[in-house]
Each structure stands twice: as C-alpha cells, then as structure tokens.
Amino acid sequence: MHTQARKIISSLETLPDIWRIIPTFGKRPLGGKQWQHKTYSPKQLQAELIRTRCKIWSGKRYIHATGVAIVCGNYHPQGHIVAIDCDGPRAWGQILILNKKLEEDEMEKISPQKLYEGALTYLPPTVAFTSGGEYKRQLLYLIPGNSSITSSKISNLEFRGKNHASVLPPSYHPEGRYYQWVSGCSPQEKQVAIAPDWVIAQMLLKQEKARLTSFPQEKYNRRDKVDRYINLYPNIKTNIQTALTFLEVIHPRFASDYTTWIQVGMALKSVSPILLDAWDRWSQLSPKYKPGECAYKWQSFRRTGITIRTLVKFANLS
User: Fold this and answer.
1) 129: domain range?
2) Does the keyword Ion transport apply (predicted)?
C-alpha cells in the first residue's frame, strides 16, 4: 500500500463519527452516478479502504482513491452540513458585498489581505481547510432543520449543499498539492459552527428563486406540490403587483410585531414564493430586523388560509 493510501486511512480516525464521507479521485467522488447515496462513516470507509487496498468500484472499473470528501446536505443529525468554498480574493470580497460592506466597483481598490480579514468577521470560527492556493479556504457550517438546502454560487464564492461534496485533508489535489487543515481549525480543534444568518439567507433565497424557473409552465399547472400559487391565483403576475402595492402602504409598525410580521410574510408567500425579497426589504423598516431571519422563516410557511386579503387588512389599518 503506497504512502498516500496509508495517510488517507490514518486520517479517517480523526474525523467525527457523525460525518458522512465518500472516497475521491482528485476532486471527483467515487461510487458511480449515485455516489451521494453510497456514503460511509469514517470507520466504515477506513475498513473498506483497508479491505480493498484503497481501490473503489466506480461503476465501470476499480480506481485508486486519492482522498476523501465530506458529503454536504442533510447527513447530520442536527441539520445540514454546508461548505463555503472561497476561491481567492474575489470570494472574500463577495462576502463583504453580500453583507453590504462593500460595493462591486470598490473591490479592486482593496488588498487581498484586507478583503480576507474583513470577510472573516462575518464567518464564525469553524472547521476549515485549504488546497494550498493563496487565499483559498473552505469552511464547514451547520444549518439546523430538515428542509433541503441546495447549492448557490456567486463568482468565486460557492455555497455547497445537497448533492455536493468537499474534498478533505490530506487528500491529493489534481495540481500536485495536498489539502491541509487551516491552523487551529481541524475537527479535533473546532466543532462545525452554526451557519451565520446571511449564509442561510443566501442559500434559501437562491432556492426560492429557482422554484418558479425549474419547471415548464404546463408542469406547474399539473403539479400542485411544486407551486400551488398558480392554482390559487390564475393571474399571478397581476396579483404580485397588487401585493407589492399593498405592501408599500402597510405601516412599518406591523414589521415590529412578531405576529403581524409573520402574517405579512405568509400572505406574500401565498401569492408567490418570489416575494421573499419584498418581505425582507419591508422587514428592514423595523429596528428589530435581523439579517437572514426572513429567509429562515419563509421556508417553514405552509398553506394556512392566510391570503392577499391579509395584506388588504393591514393596508387599511395603516
């Protein structure tokens, strides 16, 4: 058994038992097209790699594993594991832009180190690793709950969720380097932290926007579970404009009361799931506003009987 294989097998002893992992060749998960359904615990994979001498069946042939990866998604007993992949200085700049601390045209005027240091203030300490490239990091976070969390990408900044994996140390990188834990951030030194609100908001917002564009219109009309809002309001575009008009009239005091704030959000979602942005902007009129809270609540809203009429009521009371 070669040296890298022994390193991989040995490293599995240091990973938390609750992680779900997969062997890799370079950056590619092994196990065939359904690799995400063939995950292992660290101990299970260690036993398998010892048994096969680090050879994994890929669906067509056996391939020597060059590393392991953590599988993102709902494989954690407390929620979803997500990985934030920061691929160079622009990724750190994007974090500052998302948190409204930087404009796009200002990024080139700031040094990579300043972008990196500034972005870290919005990222709670957690398990982190690097492929060795300058200003390249991956950070693991936990999003509590059982709703499916999909991936999102902005330029060099990627949020990895369901059906994605992130290669872990000491795996081999295709460019000839080896993945390493960031100093003080190995799983033996840090626990996976809860994702900050802005990360949850970014991933859920991407997910909500995709709902109206993922399927052809005729499938919407056949699939009530995909988008019941079309059936509720046949003239949905008109209703969206009507809802936005009412929202402009509703007094900000209703955003400061938890019950009425929730009712406004539920009424907007009953019209269309693309109105999350509008609810978030309106919520910012309240001093109680918390970034990410709207997106977090939005995913839990179900059909309850609250409709656009609720917006009419609050508009009349404003």
Assistant:
1) 3-194
2) no
Crossing angle for the helix pair 258-271 and 308-317, nearest 10 degrees?
A: 140
Backbone angles phi, psi at 90, to 5 degrees: -65, -30
**Count of domains for the chain:** 2
- Residue whose structure tokens are 């048994």: 51
- 162, 194, 226 - which closes a domain: 194
Task: Name which of 161, 275, 163 is nearest 209 in CA terms.
Answer: 275
In three-state secondary structure terms, 18 is coil
Same domain, 117 and 35: yes
Domain boundary among 194, 226, 251: 194
* DSSP letter, residue 52: H
- 103 with 224, same domain: the answer is no
CA distance 227 to 274: 11
pTM over the 0.70 mark: no
Domain match, 10 and 155 both: yes
Domain annotation covers residue 217: yes
- pLDDT tens-digit map of 259-307: 999 999 999 988 887 889 899 999 999 999 999 899 999 988 877 778 8
The helix/strand/coil state of 23 is strand
> Residues 118-134: pLDDT tens digits?
999 999 999 999 998 88
DSSP 3-state of 69: strand
Residue 136 lies in a domain: yes
Residues 6+ apart with CB under 8 A from 235: none
Half-sphere exposure of 282 (CA within 13 A, CB side): 26
pLDDT score for 4: 85
Place of tokens 């999350």: 276
Which of 27, 115, 36, 127 lies closest to 83 in space, CA to CA?
Answer: 127
Statement to judge: residues 91 and 124 lie in one domain: yes
CA distance 45 to 51: 10
